[in-house]
Design a protein that fits this description.
The complex is a heterodimer of chains A (about 260) and B (about 280).
Chain A: H1 5-31, H2 47-59, H3 63-94, H4 96-109, H5 118-124, H6 128-153, H7 157-165, H8 170-199, H9 201-205, H10 213-222, H11 226-254, H12 256-259
Helix pairs in contact in A: 2-11, 3-4, 3-6, 3-8, 3-10, 5-6, 6-8, 7-8, 8-11, 10-11
Chain B: E1 15-24, E2 31-41, E3 46-50, H1 57-65, E4 72-77, E5 80-81, E6 89-92, H2 104-108, H3 110-114, H4 119-132, H5 148-160, E7 166-170, H6 178-194, E8 198-203, H7 206-212, E9 215-219, E10 226-231, H8 246-259
Parallel strand pairs in B: 3-8, 3-9, 6-7, 7-8
Antiparallel strand pairs in B: 1-2, 1-4, 4-5, 9-10
Helix pairs in contact in B: 4-5
The chains are: A mainly alpha (about 260), B alpha/beta (about 280).
């Protein structure tokens, strides 16, 4: 195990170097307008140009509104998905009847990509804000749901039996045994769901008319402002990565038994 | 009782089994795991059940715990039929059934919590029992921070805190190394002298059964029937010296004769107190 600060520093240096090399290759390919046949960098803006666009974006009056609108949508859609996904997952994982009733329609809805939902989302919800939240909800729901089901089903039946033998009622067993037993898997689902929720943001904000990073990215594409597209992409990537990391951090605090060291 | 709190009710814990048969599996795969078994166990008695792998001894234990319903026959504890799991009939599995997300103390306090005992009081009860099993200093540890032997002691404490009529044990020391197992056997006898509850102890280790039991019930290969009930005459408190005695050797030889696998016998998969497919992997 690399546990000394020395090796830790070495690993971080390597990670930073990896990004630096990536940027350097991109910069070179774009400024030389490389055409490799299969892919071409002729029209791809180099990182320096993207950086300029990013600075312009940050200094623009609308930047805060874009980020705030997107954060609000993802937070709302994600929160509903987390609640629904965990509740449905617990029911489906614990009860065969609930699985028979709930799983078939969910299995049909699951493979439908977010972009295909746009027309129906617009029809279903009178406000465009609600339809956008719905798209981010759909994006986050299935990873959370499936990981919850998996987590509940993988709870050791002997733990449930022990709890019964110790006087646990069904409610107490769900709260004290099934939920914590499934917690690591639920946290994984929540972290993946956070990513897919951001993943669907551009799709969702195609509906929007004004604000949102997804909208900003889409608008940049329609007016052929390529550097801005990449700014939008990187922003979504960073926000998605940051919120997933935040979730994993919260998850680790909620499941302390999962991270304690083994001492014998 | 050396000033200790009385943890069990010595007049309670009588088991009556009459023609108990247990079937496992579904449809064409169904088979009789236990066949017309009859026995009775006195309150406060320590009985070991031995038999070859897959003979249904764990299944029988599961029926006593209330996790498996007998297909026919009468299974009574203190005159009342066993209808489901109950804290009066606590079970200790071979390993890994502590709640990993609870500390040792909170694992032990689970039973009292289910009874609605207030937090301070249930912690006090848990700490008292953990002290009894010699783990007073480890109450705040999570199970995976404890050794295998320590985990089994927490399991025993978690059952005893409910003041059970029966302590049911399914090869509880089977996954431990030989030295730890011996220490655990002595510890169990020590606890049992202070907390006199009925113990039904399933094992396939003849030495273990002879060292612990008042009486050994020997079961046949599947379908499990009772071959013989052997009273174990050694005086208590027992020390490991009895292992060297002539009587020990004679009884061990007798058990081996009873359990001798017939040459055509195929070893059967191990059954568990929860029925099929959820047992320990050994």
């Amino acid at each position: 195990m690399a546990s000394s600060s020395d090796t830790g520093l070495a690993r971080w240096t390597l990670r930073a170097a990896s990004i630096a090399v990536f940027l350097l290759v991109w910069q070179t390919a774009s400024t030389l307008r490389l055409n490799l046949g299969l892919v071409t960098f002729v029209n791809v803006p180099p990182p320096t140009e993207v950086l300029e666009a990013a600075i312009a974006f940050v200094q623009s009056a609308k930047a805060v509104d874009h980020v705030r609108s997107s954060l609000a949508r993802v937070t709302a859609g994600y929160a509903i998905a987390a609640f629904a996904g965990i509740a449905l997952g617990l029911a489906i994982g614990r009860s065969r009847r609930a699985a028979d009733i709930l799983l078939p329609p969910l299995e049909i809805l699951r493979p439908i990509p977010a972009v295909a939902w746009i027309p129906l989302a617009v029809l279903l919800f009178p406000s465009s804000e609600a339809s956008m939240i719905y798209i981010t909800f759909i994006g986050a729901l299935f990873p959370i749901l499936l990981n919850t089901i998996h987590g509940v089903e993988s709870v050791d039946p002997r733990l449930v039996a022990s709890a019964k033998s110790l006087g646990g009622t069904p409610g107490a067993i769900l709260r004290e045994v099934v939920l914590p037993g499934a917690a690591p898997s639920i946290v994984t689902g929540l972290a993946i769901g956070m990513g897919t929720s951001w993943f669907c943001l551009v799709t969702a904000e195609m509906i929007s008319g004004q604000f949102g990073i997804g909208y900003y990215t889409w608008e940049a594409y329609t007016i052929q402002n390529y550097a801005d597209i990449i700014v939008g992409m990187i922003l979504i990537g960073l926000l998605g990565m940051g919120s997933s990391a935040l979730l994993r951090w919260i998850g680790a605090r909620l499941t302390p038994w999962h991270t304690v060291g083994e001492t014998r | 009782m050396s000033g200790r709190e009385r943890l069990a009710r010595p007049e309670l814990g009588r088991i009556e089994a009459q023609d108990v048969s247990i079937r496992l599996g579904r449809g064409a795969q169904a088979f009789e795991a236990v066949q017309e078994v009859s026995f009775s166990i006195e309150p406060g008695e320590l009985v070991c059940v031995i038999g070859p792998s897959g003979c249904g001894k764990s299944t029988l234990l599961g029926a006593l715990a209330g996790h498996i319903a007998p297909a026919s026959g009468k299974l009574h504890v203190d005159g009342a039929p066993v209808t489901g799991p109950h804290p009066d009939r606590g079970i200790v599995f071979q390993h890994h059934t502590l709640f990993p997300w609870k500390t040792a103390r909170d694992n032990v306090a689970f039973g009292p919590k289910m009874r609605g005992v207030a937090k301070g009081e249930r912690r006090r009860q848990a700490d008292a029992i953990l002290d009894l099993v010699g783990l007073a200093d480890f109450a705040g540890r999570y199970p995976k921070q404890l050794s295998g032997g320590m985990q089994q002691r927490v399991e025993i404490a978690r059952v005893l805190v409910n003041k059970p009529r029966l302590l049911l044990m399914d090869e509880p020391f089977g996954a431990l190394d030989a030295l730890t197992r011996m220490m655990m056997q002595e510890l169990l006898l020590d606890i049992w002298t202070r907390v006199r509850t009925t113990i039904v102890f399933v094992t396939h280790d003849i030495d273990e059964a002879l060292f612990l039991a008042d009486r050994i019930i020997v079961m046949s290969p599947r379908p499990g029937r009772i071959l013989e009930e052997i009273p174990v005459p050694f005086k208590r408190p027992r020390s490991t010296d009895i292992v060297a005695s002539q009587e020990f050797g004679r009884l061990k030889h007798h058990c081996l004769e009873l359990l001798r696998v017939r040459p055509d016998g195929v070893p059967l998969p191990r059954l568990s107190p929860l029925g099929l497919g959820t047992g320990d992997s050994e």
